[in-house]
Amino acid sequence: MPGFGAVGYGPGGAGRYRAPPENPNVTDATEPKTMAWTRFGKKKDMPGGLWIKCESCGGMLFRKEFEQKQRVCGSCGYHFTLPGRERIALTADPGSFQERFTELMPADRLGFNDKVPYDQKLAQTQQKTGETDALIAGTATIKGIPCVLAVMNFQFLGGSMGMVVGEKVARAAELAAELGQPLILFACSGGARMHEGAVSLMQMAKTCGALALLNRKGGVSISVMTHPTTGGVTASFASVCDFLIGEPGALIGFAGPRVIATTIKKELPKGFQRSEFLLEKGQIDRIVLRAQMRDELARLLAYATGRDPVAAFKPAPAAAVEAPSVAEPIPEPPAEKPKRARKAKKD
Ligand SMILES: [Zn+2]
Question: With a threshold of 0.85, does the pTM exceed it?
Answer without folding.
Answer: no
